[in-house]
Amino acid sequence: MSEQPTPFHLYLCNLKTEFMKAEIITIGDELLIGQVIDTNSAWMATQLNKIGIDVRQITSIPDSRVHILHALTEAGNRARVVLISGGLGPTRDDITKQTLCEFFDTVLAPDQDALADITALFAKRGYPMTELNLRQADMPEACNSIPNPVGTARGMWFEKENTIYVSMPGVPFEMKQMMTDHVLPALRLRNKGTSVVHRTILTTGVGESFLAARIETWENSLPAYIKLAYLPQPGMVRLRLTARGCHEEKLTSEVASLVDKLYTLIPEYIFGEEPDTLEEVTGRLLLRHGQTLATAESCTGGAIASRITTVPGSSSWYKGSVVAYANQVKEQVLGVEKETLEKHGAVSEPVVIQMAQNARQLLHTDWALSVSGIAGPDGGTPEKPVGTVWIAVSGPKATQAAKFQFGDNRERNIVRATVAALNMLRVSLLDE
């Protein structure tokens, strides 16, 4: 199908606007040996994207002068914004500042504002200052230093050959404060006139390929400046619409219209939009009905209860859980009949129905969820292979159960069973 034409107002906008391209460099041996997970890059990329700056590459390098110089050179050739985190501590292995001086052909000199901040911070904490701490007040003469109210390492803003370089501490909360207070506002001003609009639709109960087939005609109708991304994860698929241009109101309106059409195409699979979670959506429905919930879990081992209790205020609608991993607990605590267990096995429709119904009575709730399955990697049989899960929802009017066949990965099976159970409850509440 031919690409949709760009509306004239956006065509003119794109002729005049160059969307900033950015790269992120994280520095530290600990990143490359797996001792520390790089969460800084993901956070920075998210924030840059919100203000219309495209991140084209993320690079992690060791605390090595040669690697730092090479990475700075390569990134500067490709991007107009280069964000760097890490290597600004007071110890001998933190060489970023000295290497930046070499790259920008400058020298370190005392920064009185930085010294005053460091002195005040140590006085506030009641710690003695060392010579190494005092050295952190030395800054490259060619940079604009960026205040760090929660640490001793200031950030540095350089400009060279039409590219902005910003070096920040690797400590996440220090970097985030610096980005939020200083770096992002300055970059937003430099990138004025460009807009990015996102909407992310959350779906569950449907696979990515089937979903793509259902919305193919709708997707093919998207204009060139609006992109769709499929973001699958166990039990759900996120659909992210991204519109780029220089007229934010028009983009927002167009995206809203497209989302409205999507709701008419796949209403049975959509449960919300980011930042919603399935447990939050379910909780809101229970609150709307003035009803309460209990859970009875076997193979999920309390995972459903854990997700529910992350929701602020869930104590007003969630009463508790019985984690009945052993058959003895299913019998003695939940009151599942021994004969039912012996005849059908723990992973069966009759057992999860009794688990849900008895959990409602035991915890005096309006609704109950129950789950029993074979998470794996062992325990499967030809009749009940690994990944077989039975889920039941018991409510004021009826109890229903459903069988699922997930897969052979234990961790994913637990996540998918948790998502499926919450979604079964959500659908039942909508039908109430």
Describe the structure concisely.
The chain has helices at residues 8-16, 29-32, 40-50, 65-78, 96-103, 112-125, 131-135, 172-190, 208-214, 216-220, 248-265, 278-289, 303-308, 327-332, 338-344, 349-363, 410-431; strands spanning 21-27, 54-61, 81-85, 108-110, 138-140, 144-146, 155-160, 163-168, 195-204, 226-233, 236-245, 270-273, 293-297, 318-323, 367-373, 388-394, 399-405. With 432 residues, it is α/β, with parallel strands linked by helices. α3 (40-50) packs parallel to α8, α4 (65-78) crosses α5 (96-103) and α12 packs parallel to α17.
Overview of the structural elements:
The protein has helices spanning 8-16, 29-32, 40-50, 65-78, 96-103, 112-125, 131-135, 172-190, 208-214, 216-220, 248-265, 278-289, 303-308, 327-332, 338-344, 349-363, 410-431, and strands at 21-27, 54-61, 81-85, 108-110, 138-140, 144-146, 155-160, 163-168, 195-204, 226-233, 236-245, 270-273, 293-297, 318-323, 367-373, 388-394, 399-405. It is an alpha/beta fold and 432 residues long. The chain has three domains: 18-190, Molybdenum Cofactor Biosythetic Enzyme, Chain A; 195-273, Alpha-Beta Plaits, CATH 3.30.70; 280-427, Maf protein (Alpha-Beta Complex), CATH 3.90.950.20. The strands form four sheets. The protein has a six-stranded mixed beta sheet with strand order 2-1-3-8-7-6, sandwiched between helices. Strands 14-13-15-16-17 form a five-stranded mixed beta sheet, sandwiched between helices. A four-stranded antiparallel beta sheet has the order 10-11-9-12. It is elongated and about 80 Å long. It starts with 7 loop residues before the first helix and ends with a helix. Mean pLDDT is 93; it is low at 8-12.
